[in-house]
Design brief:
single chain, six-stranded mixed β-sheet, 152 residues, 46% helix, 5 helices, Rossmann fold, UPF0178 protein HER31_13005, UPF0178, 6 strands
Length: 152
């Protein structure tokens, strides 16, 4: 099982949590972005730069992800695609997307998009909080622990 990171908009603090976890647990982690990203030297951390363009990084992740893998993304349509492939998706705020909740998230995303396109100011998401970082680290640790049990 691998971790794939939709790294274009992934907060630095989340990447740092992932780097430490990858080395600690020897989990292959690949960051995908359309611009250069610095990663620490590690046999478990890789970076793949893709060309610029709408959903190029997302499409690349979908072609690579396998059942049981974990994708880190705040992109709800990408999360839905990886869930269809029997992978899991975790957003940087610590919410694990699943087959049971992704449809609701897609519907809310589409509703908010409709509001914005009609001129309603919906504002952006709040800044990532310490509680968000803790929730993310907790969900990541649960996935890594489950992965470790399956390997034994």
């Amino acid at each position: 099982m691998k971790i794939w990171v939709d790294a274009d908009a992934c907060p630095t603090v989340i990447k740092e949590i992932l780097f430490k976890a990858a080395d600690r647990t020897k989990t292959q982690t690949t960051l995908i972005a359309n611009h250069s990203i610095r990663i620490p030297p590690s046999p478990y951390i890789q970076f793949r730069q893709v060309s610029s363009g709408f959903d190029v990084a997302d499409d690349w992740i979908v072609t690579q992800v396998e059942s049981g893998d974990l994708v880190i993304t705040a992109d709800i349509p990408l999360a839905a695609e990886v869930i269809e492939k029997k992978a899991l998706a975790l957003n940087p705020r610590g919410e694990m997307y699943s087959a049971s909740n992704i449809r609701q998230r897609l519907n809310m995303r589409d509703f908010m998009d409709t509001l914005r396109s009609s001129g309603v100011q919906t504002g952006g998401p709040p800044a990532l909080s310490a509680q968000d970082r803790k929730a993310f680290a907790g969900e990541l640790d649960r996935w890594l622990a489950k992965k470790a049990r399956q390997v034994r």
